[in-house]
Automatic annotation (TrEMBL):
Belongs to the GRAS family. A motif (VHIID) lies at residues 158-162. It comes from Urochloa decumbens. The keyword Transcription regulation applies. It comes from the Eukaryota. PROSITE patterns: GRAS. This is Scarecrow-like protein 3. Keywords: Transcription, Transcription regulation. Residues 10-23 have a biased composition (Low complexity). Residues 429-507 are annotated as: SAW. A motif (LXXLL motif) lies at residues 263-267. Residues 1-23 are annotated as: Disordered.
Length: 521
């Protein structure tokens, strides 16, 4: 992939910000031809920052001017990663701008919802391609299973609650079957409860696949389904013991909870509740799993690294726009007050949910989350973090496509538009209860978990070695790596040394088992 080289970045710092980044008021066709490819890259990044500042300041005319220029340089179908990334962010910024006009915004939501429903069948395929081509979900499943296996040593009856929703995958539990079957003393009686709002067909497929695999491994197995979102479970918290009843948590079973990339949704504000669609059922059905794709090794430089190392520290906003942003987001301003209120409400909702989970007395709760700060109150802070974070993910996908000689370009384009693009819109364009993509870094998750009465369970060295073995076996070592945090309490999954996901393990603070770490083998 042709990523903009180092001299592109250095040229940005040697030119005045006003001439490089301020939109030209005329000559929209001619100026593009006058710029070299490298200069277009620098110009795009500058325009994105400038546009975000103007949107934050509510400067419609100046933001529109930036968007017009971005659209001449960027496209979802462009050959270069930065151009496609810029197109996705331009879409999110335009939606953010429109949201400042509530009447227009609500009117447009109907047509947007209609087009999205027409593409719903493509989203699953896009998620599957993302799973196949980048290792983060596989690593999350593997390390989660390793932690569960160690925590359940000696247990004869095990109940695993899967709260991962759209990130849930039968592959994870098939791998756990393998691990339990190989342990000393044989496998336990295993029950898996999946919380998922994908519909009866999706849950039936998972049930059928797991039942078939469990029978092949001669593992006593039961599958329960709760057709709901994690958000919906919060509605149960006002009724004593309702969460325990819905998840069918029983005495005599050792409980493990797995949640991948879902807890951040509970940080959204309380003012829009879930649909209350929680239903419990046993489901039959059938499905087949496609094989895992192998992604070839990547070249040494990534867009995410380039953007973070150079541009993130050197790009300067125009003084007028910067002052407008500071003013609109000062602690005393109405905008800042409005932004803090949903965050506080969401934190309360999450806290109540975690306390309810603690009340279930799990032996272990394993949490995998994007390692990013997309929950900041300040819009510009969220925008900057998102540009760096999703720049890295776009780069991962581009390197995978290049490794397959661009045979997967159509699939990559769907992932960028339907999965990552939707997440970018969630971070950049939405506010309040509608902003579900509230990713936070592990340090903040640690504070939230401990405030809810949970304590850390160290992730073992053996789990890290298993994860590294997976990277090597799939040809992903080098660009990707698994890092054990200095205290041995979590894993970070990195792309060119930038952490993009974290996995950590927790248990109720009152539960004092022998030792603080799950194992060393």
């Amino acid at each position: 992939m042709d990523i903009f080289p180092e001299d592109t970045v250095s040229s940005a710092t040697s030119s005045p910000a006003s001439s490089l980044y301020s939109p030209s008021p005329h000559g929209y066709g001619s100026w593009v031809q006058e710029l070299s490819h490298d200069q277009q890259g620098v110009r795009l990044i500058g325009l994105l920052y400038q546009c975000a500042a103007e949107v934050a300041a509510g400067a419609f005319d100046r933001a529109n001017l930036c968007l017009e220029q971005i659209n001449q340089l960027a496209s979802l179908d462009a050959p270069h990663t930065l151009q496609r990334l810029a197109a996705v962010f331009a879409d999110a910024l335009s939606r953010k701008l429109i949201s400042l006009l509530p009447g227009v915004s609500r009117a447009l939501q109907y047509s947007t919802a209609a087009s999205c429903s027409g593409e719903a069948h493509l989203v699953h395929a896009a998620r599957r391609h993302l799973f196949d081509t980048v290792p983060f979900m596989k690593l999350a499943y593997l390390t989660t299973n390793h932690a569960i296996l160690e925590a359940m040593e000696g247990e004869r009856f095990v109940h695993v609650v899967d709260l991962s929703g759209p990130a849930s995958n039968a592959v994870q539990w098939i791998a756990l079957f393998h691990a339990f079957r190989a342990r000393r003393g044989g496998p336990p009686h295993l029950r898996v409860t999946a919380v998922h709002d994908g519909g009866k067909e999706c849950l039936a497929s998972m049930a059928a696949v797991l039942a078939k695999e469990a029978e092949a491994f001669d593992i006593p197995f039961q599958f329960d389904a709760v057709e709901a979102r994690v958000d919906d479970l919060v509605l149960l918290l006002d009724t004593p013991d309702a969460l325990r009843q819905v998840l069918r948590v029983r005495s005599g079973e050792a409980l493990a909870i797995s949640v991948v990339s879902q807890l951040h949704r509970l940080l959204a504000a309380d003012d829009v509740a879930g649909a209350g669609r929680t239903r419990q059922q046993h489901v039959p059905g059938s499905s087949c799993l496609t094989p895992v794709q192998i992604m070839a090794r990547s070249s040494p430089r990534s867009f995410g690294e380039l953007l973070e190392r150079e541009l993130n520290t050197r790009l300067q906003l125009s003084p007028d726009a910067a002052s407008s942003v500071v003013s609109s987001l000062s602690p005393q301003s109405p905008a800042a007050q409005q932004q803090r209120t949903p965050a506080a409400a969401g934190a309360a909702k999450l806290g109540r949910f975690l306390q309810a989970v603690r009340g279930l007395s799990p032996k272990i709760m394993v949490v995998a989350e994007p390692e990013a700060n997309h929950n900041a109150a300040a819009f510009m802070e969220r925008f900057e973090e998102a540009l760096n974070y999703y720049g890295s993910l776009f780069d991962c996908l581009e390197r995978a496509s290049a490794a397959h000689h661009h045979r997967q370009e159509a699939e990559r384009a769907r992932v960028e538009r339907l999965v990552l693009g939707e997440e970018v819109r969630g971070v950049v364009a939405r506010e309040g209860a509608e902003r579900k993509e509230r990713h936070e870094r592990l340090a903040q998750w640690g504070r939230r978990m401990e405030a809810a009465g949970m304590e850390r369970v160290g992730m073992s060295y053996g789990g890290m070695m298993e994860a590294r073995k997976l990277l090597h076996s799939m040809g992903w070592a080098g660009s990707y790596e698994v890092v054990h945090d200095p205290r041995g309490e979590a894993f970070f999954f990195c792309w060119h040394r930038r952490p993009l996901y974290s996995v950590s393990a927790w248990r109720p603070a009152a539960c004092r088992h022998s030792g603080g770490r799950l194992g060393s083998s």
